[in-house]
Specification:
The complex is a heterodimer of chains A (682) and B (409).
Chain A lengths: L2 E14 L2 E14 L3 E5 L6 H9 L6 E10 L2 E2 L5 H7 L4 E4 L3 H4 L6 H34 L4 H44 L5 H15 L13 H12 L3 H17 L5 H12 L4 H42 L4 H18 L9 H4 L1 H38 L16 H24 L4 H20 L4 H14 L5 H5 L8 H13 L5 E5 L7 H18 L2 E6 L2 H7 L2 E6 L2 E7 H6 L4 H8 L48 E2 L5 E2 L15 H17 L1
Parallel strand pairs in A: 3-8, 3-9, 6-7, 7-8
Antiparallel strand pairs in A: 1-2, 1-4, 4-5, 9-10, 10-12, 11-12
Helix pairs in contact in A: 4-15, 4-16, 5-6, 5-8, 5-9, 5-10, 5-15, 7-8, 9-10, 10-11, 10-14, 10-15, 11-13, 13-14, 16-18, 18-19
Chain B lengths: L4 E14 L2 E14 L3 E5 L6 H8 L7 E6 L2 E7 H24 L2 H54 L2 H20 L6 E4 L13 H12 L4 H14 L16 H13 L5 E5 L7 H18 L2 E6 L2 H7 L2 E6 L2 E7 H6 L4 H8 L6 H6 L7 H4 L8 E6 L2 E5 L1 H14 L1
Parallel strand pairs in B: 3-8, 3-9, 6-7, 7-8
Antiparallel strand pairs in B: 1-2, 1-4, 4-5, 9-10, 10-12, 11-12
Helix pairs in contact in B: 2-3, 3-4, 5-6, 5-7, 6-7, 7-8
Classes of the chains: A alpha/beta (682), B alpha/beta (409).
């Protein structure tokens, strides 16, 4: 399976009046295509903060200190607001906890549903055109020198232009038809007054519009019957009847959905081009393939030439960093790598594309950290001295000293080195791999066609409404036509959540983030909504990130589960692994604190409350509430231990030297019972 | 557990006006809670379970029905009685006029006399219900005062002169407290949302002690002692008493709510979804706490929730509510072993379990009252299917259920 989203070493904190709250501390996870990843943890564990960072809707006082979120070869954390706008809803959509507060109370359901579609149609056209020309330009640049190829590209551009022209003429014809229809409707109302002069005048106006709406895409408006009707309106024979019929013809023609202009134009260009129609596509694809091969060859050479520079850079980063030299090096690397990127390739590699941003930020962070670390250390020393002075005087100061926020400069160095090494590895791999021009050309052609078609795709209000009603049907709302015109407060809680899901789906996202979508609902509705999310995920091949604090809910829906505590992922594995062989004491505690239908006796509650993240504990954050805590848990944070290929847990209990600890009896019994039941049913 | 009935709810109806029509939030609900047990009330949101709890504690004026606590009627509605009065009057008059028209003057006269008597009886019932509803606390206080005086009068008569003054003072104080005593103090409530149910401008000590102060206790030392004791009982420390609610986490706030309820030494606690606003890891703490307190203080609990696995864990008997009516009532084990009503079955099928294999196979049973029942000719009533297992059903369904029970056992 392909990774669709990668979160790497993400660290987020919040500035507050009392100090810096470390909400998310160095978490990493991947989201694969078509899977559901559940993030489980209690409130304040940082699960919502993480997903909000993915959408760029973090609170204003949030500081993203470190890490990357990679999507489609780009680092989302470096996005500007404009870039985020093309991502939110479009590619990644979110369902929030409380349906009442995520719907606008004074806007009808239908309008909220179609809003995104209409807006997306406008920006989609603009972006489609931009991407189309940008990519053709890249191909153009690499295929320089071959005149027949140039000719083909020019033809392709002409296709796009023709499509736009066709669309414009269609739009004009349609507008005329609409105007004519509106006038007929007015006149039919006024007909009873029998003002002959006015009727004559109005009819002339109608004729003017009705006769100019001839268009290839509106065949009904150029038929002979239509012309005969126009004739009779002009001559004055049986005017009312003719007008009524005209009206119905216009209405019929206007209710047809918009045709696909690009396909028509493409067919037209194909048939008139110098090579025969069948060969046109082949020739075009060949041309693209040759351009791609040339471009690939050129860039492979460049990359090969750049490798020694990179290797040299790795050595340089290992030595002591000098501000001037390192900055010059970063500048050189950035320029070099940007030159080496093959823009004619459609698939973007994240290592290559995020390289420049990564090393630049590493460099800046390093030198900033040098200054800041000094200041922080001084502050910490000052406070410690003051506290000790007070203690020497026999007082008991109640305030705590916040640990000095020292940034690990070695880590930054290491990260930069890793980025360069990864790039070297990528270049080397690419050098050894075989370039399949044919396949790439097919992809490129599809991409170009898709973008060109996008430039003329227009969603009208009617079309948007039709789609909205289809969506409402899909999410299981009875009577969608009626609901379309209602306000959110007229719906029940479960239906509101369904509407929210429909809105999230309205722009066809790839990733759906559900932030506790069922917490505000009761048991029966909850299971309905979960079923719905599962169904939609299957039908639309979505990837889902599902956030909840209730492990019971997750069993139904998740493929993989990440358990979070105090800003860290403490356990990470497939659904079966987490439920049948949990390894972290926190997961045990979560599982045993929920009563099931068979449980009797005292529940295993987790004592105490989560730690204050302004002063995160030095060792394992869960140690204070953990019955199985070892001494080392209070001193040092446990690393991630790998249990199986997909199962990880951060607890010292998994260390080979740790004493053998069994999971609590209640869970053990329950798991045994569940397994027995599963076997019995088989 | 003994079989003494602590709380009895008879034909409770609670209607709310909404525009022109009436919303039947609770419609003809009857059940009884035995001393020392936990009675669970389950249903989806909007089914009237919270309204039932609030009606019992007199937060609403009930429309019809009786609530009887420790043998005393503490709330009564008169709607049903008044309707009956009207009906009897109309029917009687009709009958009398018919008799008169038929020429049976004598029979008409006796009928008139009988009707008169019947109406008089109904009228008295209405009056007594109204007076009970209004004056139950006053009557209880009078009773308590009588008890106090019965206790002190002989002592006063017998005691020596030098002790008389002290005893008189004690007597006066006891009388004052007895006068302020309320029977409804013995029912306390724990609310769902611990943030909304605590006054943000009062310290924890004030919040917990408020009930005692209203009760008329003036001894500051005694109050402090009690507050600290309660804080200790619910797992907080005395140093917390000076703080304000916002300084606490959700679980701690719920603990404060519980302390406030138990300081009044109640017999019955109505816990209205006490854990649904809390995090999973805290939920277990609160469940354990309520369970411990129940054993320690011998409390009876009316537990209202929508989470079936918690209710199952917690309750001795469970009533399932749907649209203002109790559809099934049984011992908790019995209910989960033999769920009879289709709504109960649907509810049980919706419980999520931490078991991926089971979850993938789980089939939710949908419930649609129009499809599940045919009540067009035969109206349903609340019937006992087997011992202590009641279901809302009509004759045909009743037979069906009986067959099912036999099949299983």
């Amino acid at each position: 399976m392909n990774k669709i989203l990668e979160v790497k070493d993400l660290r987020i904190s919040f500035r507050t009046a009392n100090g810096k709250v470390q909400a998310v501390r160095d978490i990493s996870f991947d989201l694969f295509e078509r899977e559901t990843l559940a993030i489980v943890g209690e409130s304040g564990s940082g699960k919502s903060v993480t997903t909000r960072a993915i959408l760029g809707i973090s609170a204003l006082n949030a500081v993203i200190e470190n890490g990357e979120i990679l999507y489609d070869g780009k680092d989302i954390l470096k996005f500007t607001e404009e870039e985020f706008q093309s991502l939110r809803g479009d590619k990644i959509a979110m369902i929030f906890q409380d349906p009442m507060s995520s719907l606008n109370p004074i806007v009808k359901v239908g309008k909220q549903l179609t809003e995104a579609m209409l807006l997306k149609s406008r920006t989609g056209r603009r972006e489609g055109r931009r991407d189309f020309y940008r990519y053709l330009k890249a191909l153009h640049a690499s295929g320089r020198g071959n005149s027949s190829e140039q000719e083909l590209f020019r033809l392709f551009i002409r296709t796009e232009k023709t499509a736009t022209r066709l669309q414009n003429s269609y739009k004009q014809a349609r507008e005329n038809a609409e105007e004519a229809k509106a006038r007929i409707a007015d006149l039919l109302v006024a007909f009873e007054k029998k003002e002959a002069a006015r009727i004559q005048r109005e009819c002339l106006g109608i004729l003017r519009y009705a006769s100019t709406c001839k268009n290839a895409f509106l065949p009904a408006l150029s038929s002979e019957h239509y012309h005969a009707l126009l004739q009779s309106v002009a001559s004055g024979n049986e005017r009312p009847n003719a007008l009524t019929e005209l009206n119905s013809i216009l209405e019929q023609a206007l209710s047809e959905p918009e045709p696909d202009f690009f396909t028509t134009a493409y067919d037209a260009v194909k048939s008139t081009s110098s090579p025969s129609a069948n060969e046109f596509e082949k020739a075009l694809s060949d041309a693209i393939a040759s351009a791609l091969t040339q471009s690939h060859k050129l860039h492979a050479q460049k990359q090969e030439a750049f490798l020694p520079v990179l290797r040299d850079a790795v050595n340089r980063t290992e030595k002591e960093w000098d501000k001037k030299q390192i900055r010059a090096l970063v500048k050189k690397l950035t320029a070099g790598v940007n030159d080496c990127i093959d823009r004619a390739q459609i698939a973007k590699n994240s290592t290559e594309h995020t390289f420049a941003g990564c090393i630049n930020s590493c460099c800046e962070k390093y030198f900033r950290a040098l200054v800041k670390n000094r200041k922080e250390q001084a502050k910490f020393d000052r406070q410690t001295a003051r506290r000790e002075k007070l203690i020497r005087r026999g007082k008991h100061p109640e305030w705590k000293i916040a640990p000095a926020a020292i940034t690990d400069t070695d880590l930054i160095k290491k990260r930069m080195r890793e980025a360069i090494v990864a790039l070297i590895r990528l270049y080397e791999e690419r050098r050894d791999a075989i370039f399949n021009a044919e396949e790439n050309a097919q992809q490129a052609l599809e991409y170009l066609k898709h973008k060109a078609a996008q430039t003329t795709a227009r969603v009208t209000k009617n079309a948007a409404k039709r789609r909205a009603i289809r969506l409402l049907n899909e999410v299981g709302i009875p009577d969608p036509e009626k609901r379309y015109n209602q306000y959110p407060f007229q719906l029940s809680g479960g239906q509101r959540q369904r509407i929210v899901i429909a809105i999230a789906l309205s722009a066809d996202p790839e990733i759906l983030i559900c932030d506790e979508p069922t917490t505000a609902l009761d048991v029966t509705i909850q299971s309905q909504i979960l079923e719905l999310i599962n169904k939609i995920k299957r039908e639309r091949n979505l990837s889902v990130i599902f956030i909840t604090h209730d492990l019971g809910v997750v069993a139904n829906i998740a493929d993989r589960i990440a358990v979070m505590y105090a800003g860290k992922i403490v356990e990470y594995g497939t659904s079966e692994e987490i439920f049948y062989s949990p390894a972290h004491p926190y997961t045990w505690a979560l599982l045993s604190s929920v009563p099931d239908l068979e449980s009797t006796g005292k529940l295993e509650a987790i004592p105490g409350t989560p730690p204050n993240m302004i002063y995160p504990p030095k060792g394992d954050a869960f140690a204070d509430r953990n019955r199985y805590a070892l001494e080392i848990d209070f001193k040092q944070q446990p690393p991630m231990f790998q249990i199986s290929e997909t199962h990880f847990a951060a607890t010292w209990l998994l260390h080979p030297l740790a004493p053998k600890v069994e999971m609590p009896k209640a869970i053990k019994d329950r798991i045994r019972r569940m397994k027995e039941e599963a076997e019995r049913e088989q | 557990m003994n079989n003494k009935i602590l709380l009895e709810v008879q034909n409770l109806c609670q209607y709310f006006k909404s525009g022109q029509s009436e919303l039947k939030a609770v419609d003809d609900v009857s059940f009884s809670v035995r001393k020392g047990e936990v009675f669970g009330l389950v249903g989806e949101s909007g089914c009237g379970k919270t309204t039932t709890g609030r009606s019992i504690i007199r937060l609403y004026n009930i429309t019809s029905g009786n609530v009887i606590f420790e043998g005393t009627r503490i709330a009564a509605g008169t709607r049903a009685l008044e309707e009956k009065y009207k009906e009897t009057k109309q029917n009687g008059r009709k009958k009398i006029t018919e008799l008169k028209r038929g020429g049976n003057i004598r029979e008409a006269e006796t009928a008139e006399r009988e009707l008169e008597q019947e109406l008089q009886k109904l009228h008295e019932e209405i009056a007594s219900a109204k007076s009970d509803d209004k004056h139950c606390n006053k009557k209880y206080a009078e009773q308590e005062m009588r008890k106090v005086s019965e206790h002190y009068e002989p002592l006063l008569a017998a005691c020596a002169d030098n002790e008389r003054e002290k005893l008189e003072k004690e007597y006066k104080e006891a009388l004052r407290l007895a006068k302020k005593d309320r029977i409804t103090n013995k029912i306390q409530m724990i609310f769902q949302d611990p943030i909304a149910s605590l006054n943000p401008r009062m310290t924890v000590r004030d919040i917990i002690a408020e009930g005692l102060i209203i009760k008329g206790i003036r001894d500051k030392k005694y109050i402090d002692e009690q507050v600290y004791k309660m804080l200790d009982l619910v797992g907080l420390s005395p140093e917390h008493s000076g703080r304000y609610p916002h300084e606490f986490s959700g679980g701690q706030r719920q603990r404060i709510g519980i302390a406030r309820a138990i300081i009044m030494q109640p017999e019955l606690i109505i816990a209205d979804e006490p854990i649904s606003a809390l995090d999973v890891s805290i939920q277990a703490q609160i469940i354990n706490l309520i369970n411990d307190l129940r054993k320690e203080l011998g409390l009876t609990v009316l537990f209202i929730a929508h989470d079936l696995s918690v209710v199952k864990y917690f309750s001795d008997r469970i009533a399932v509510m749907y649209l203002g009516k109790i559809v099934e009532l049984a011992d908790s084990d019995e209910l989960f072993r033999h769920p009879l009503h289709p709504y109960t079955r649907s509810l049980l099928s919706a419980i999520p379990l931490p078991d991926p294999v089971y979850e993938r196979k789980r089939k939710r049973i949908p419930y649609n009252p129009l499809l599940a029942h045919d009540y067009s000719s035969d109206k349903p009533t609340f019937r006992e299917v087997c011992k202590d297992h009641f279901v809302l059903c009509n004759e045909a369904e009743y037979k069906d259920y009986l067959g099912k029970i036999k099949e299983k056992s």
